[in-house]
Fold Neutrophil cytosol factor 2.
Amino acid sequence: MALYCRTPHYRLLQPVAPQSSKRPTKLPSKPYRTQINIQVLAETHFDNYDFELSLSVFHEQCFICKTFPLAPIYFNIGQIHLHLGERLESESWFLKAISIDPYLAVAFLQLGAVHVGLGQPAHARGYYESCYSVITRGSAADNADVEYDQLGLRYTLRVADVEANIRLCAAVEAAANGDSEEEWVCEELAIPRAVVMVPAGTIFRAQSRKRKARAEDPAKTAEWRFRDEARVIAEAPEQNLSGLQGGGTPRKKW
């Protein structure tokens, strides 16, 4: 049945399609400054130990901020779920982060920690080996440590830590198969008995440069805030424009 809109004069207009109750599949991208504000709000709730509210804000950021790098946000959501002991939920978000950025080595590291907690050392060792191959890709193992501080994560991923995690998982597997004793293997090879992982309170945060631009006048930061507004390339003094009108034609004097 067609729907009609009625005017004060009771004149029938064109048929109007019934509005769908479904949520729109795509929203217009928010300005870049708004995206940073949303992330800072989520970080504030996280620092105040309000993890549920922080999760809801990060989820909202994933939905409305299509131009923002989503892999770090997915990592943050997985990190919060891991901190709350929800390992399976955290695993799904770390996998989403990897699907967007397959070179996000810290996500592989956390996936290994998830499977260690689940009692699956073979799966954990596979993720640690993937992490090792990512960080040593195209460089020597002695000089492959990754500093994530410039990306907003205060953590240094060290090759030696990843190698120790691999050896520990192998030792646990050997002990489970009855090939050797885990305690003896760890003592002989000097393997730590706990895996190295990103600390629970460490997440990707808005970088200091972005935070500074968020607090400043938009006109002062327009030269790099290209996702918000048009760039300001140059400004002309007003006296040079006194003889121009509209499209640049000289102004006539009568």
User: Anything to note?
Assistant: The CA atoms of residues 58 and 233 lie 34 Å apart. Confidence is low (pLDDT under 50) at residues 1-17, 22-30, 221-234, 247-254.
